[in-house]
Amino acid sequence: MSLDQQYDVSCGPLVGDLTERLRDHAVDHVRRCCADQLAGRPEARVAAEALPGYVSGGKLLRSTFALVGWSCGRGGSDAAMRAVASLELLHCFALVQDDVMDGSPRRRGRPALHVTLSAWHREQGLSGSAERFGASAATLFGDLLLVWAEQMLRESGLDDADLARAWPLYDAMRAELVVGQLSDLVNDTRAEPTWESVLDVARRKSGNYTVRRPLEFGAALAGCDPSVTAPLSRYGALVGEAFQLRDDVLGVFGHPSTTGKPAGDDLRNRTATSLVVVARDRAGPAQRRAMRALAHLDHVDADAVAAWQDLICDTGAPERIEEIITARVDDALAAIGCADVPEHARDALTSLAHRCTDRRD
Amino acid sequence: MSLDQQYDVSCGPLVGDLTERLRDHAVDHVRRCCADQLAGRPEARVAAEALPGYVSGGKLLRSTFALVGWSCGRGGSDAAMRAVASLELLHCFALVQDDVMDGSPRRRGRPALHVTLSAWHREQGLSGSAERFGASAATLFGDLLLVWAEQMLRESGLDDADLARAWPLYDAMRAELVVGQLSDLVNDTRAEPTWESVLDVARRKSGNYTVRRPLEFGAALAGCDPSVTAPLSRYGALVGEAFQLRDDVLGVFGHPSTTGKPAGDDLRNRTATSLVVVARDRAGPAQRRAMRALAHLDHVDADAVAAWQDLICDTGAPERIEEIITARVDDALAAIGCADVPEHARDALTSLAHRCTDRRD
């Protein structure tokens, strides 16, 4: 297989193959770190068994986008694969700690890590609060993933000169990710944020972290020219925003089998997402009063979720969000349509734009 | 001032001067990161104001040991100062998250970061639990400190070749630190651990992280020969263990003005430290029953602390721990007495061994 073929990340069977290879690299590194650093520690065994599952259970969007960024400048290598696969460990750090902060019970189709650790504490009959242990220990495993991610990148085998171009972006991405989580802590429907501020959070959180920064990171590792990175950035910002808008739709209407979360999770958590805010802005006075009453319930139960979903539908907000998603994807494809990127990358970006933003149920 | 004078880290006025310079470097980096990454975010402002205080409030033991390690091989430079000062940010990451996990109210003479953040949440009248917000936000600021520490080291100005020698040690130190925290979560007097296992935790936690690894890290950055690093490692393991034993004495008998924590904090938290375990092992059957009863109280109050302290004294455990501390320091000084290290470093290590392990109240 030629180097070019190795990096045919367009739609087709090779996407699957590349995704599996990225997954293998990420899981290998986690397994090796667990073996090196956690062996012989009973309180770590249950997490060491669970961590590879969390790392491998994702869609590997971030590492795939980074690989496409890389492929705009250079041919394939195992070193490059390892470097971009490290983003999956970084993402896993964020998920593990996010689940602690949100008290989320499940992640990627399995119990969240803090839940698994609490259960272990209970089974062992240890003293003290099992919940507290689960939260603290999961936070520490999140810290380890953050360290392992950076170590995997540094030890990927890429030259220091390649890495040196990407470190500033990597640091900025990590900070942006953590600061995005911080903003999420004060995100609450009841505070009635504006559409602009919600869109700003969406851009910062997903627009940047899921699509734009990984693309830029891969392109920086490969030493791409600004003529290549500028359209990638523009595409990344647009597709990232559309991805977050899709996620916001699923957060209200998605099925648990698709989202891995309870139905109407964003409503239950009173997260002020794009869909919730557009609905509020389009609502008549009576609808708006009804939404506000639901948001202020002590407990948003299944009936409240259903009533809130109906109200949102009545405003026409879902159709409006679909229009925006379509427009963002169209603009993104236009941005790379005439850009100075290789044909195989353009094909991959076209396919990925749809994969990221299409209805998923 | 000549380069050699700059690195006279022995006792005397220059120690103070060097400590201040390390402090300035650490605080500068934190301030710059806050300005770059947290500006304009109201939920971050209170932490951005508080973080420099936590970083500057310590004794800078770790960066000082690392500087001594460096000075065994090379002369002074601002790049080296920045590289070793980065350890203070790493330490601060551990403290901030540790306080969340232990629910500690104070740190370095001020409210713990999670307490400050909870208070801010309450003042702003935000919805949701202020405690939960404080814990989550402090965890995220801990994550930022972990990232900033590594960034500070990488951008210190040292050559890639110098850094390359130290990265494996740095990664191992970070993992050891996090895994040490994890072990602490299951540390409970009520589980009645053995003296050997408690000493193992003491070595891993402080023996390595506070003294040994920083020394080795500084020496690795400077490219020291094994003939230099071997005695530094031996010294570090011994002084580190003595440091932790001193800390264990203070955890039972220390005054809040010295420790910055409530009196008898380790007893209240039922932490199985060296002192507690030696006392238990030396106790007669009646004393042991009394200790066990205190450990199993629902709430270890001030009277229980006083009774437990008396029981510990009656066993002669404090004198036994003092003997061990003295023996460890003697062995450590012997290890560097005839070692191949510069005279100024030997002087500094002698002074630091006493400063780390002397009675502090």
From TrEMBL, chains A, B:
<dbReference type="InterPro" id="IPR000092">
    <property type="entry name" value="Polyprenyl_synt"/>
</dbReference>
<dbReference type="Pfam" id="PF00348">
    <property type="entry name" value="polyprenyl_synt"/>
</dbReference>
<dbReference type="InterPro" id="IPR008949">
    <property type="entry name" value="Isoprenoid_synthase_dom_sf"/>
</dbReference>
<keyword id="KW-0479">Metal-binding</keyword>
<dbReference type="GO" id="GO:0008299">
    <property type="term" value="P:isoprenoid biosynthetic process"/>
</dbReference>
<keyword id="KW-0460">Magnesium</keyword>
<dbReference type="GO" id="GO:0004659">
    <property type="term" value="F:prenyltransferase activity"/>
</dbReference>
<comment type="similarity">
    <text>Belongs to the FPP/GGPP synthase family.</text>
</comment>
<keyword id="KW-0808">Transferase</keyword>
<dbReference type="GO" id="GO:0046872">
    <property type="term" value="F:metal ion binding"/>
</dbReference>
<dbReference type="InterPro" id="IPR033749">
    <property type="entry name" value="Polyprenyl_synt_CS"/>
</dbReference>
<protein>
    <submittedName>
        <fullName>Geranylgeranyl diphosphate synthase type I</fullName>
    </submittedName>
</protein>
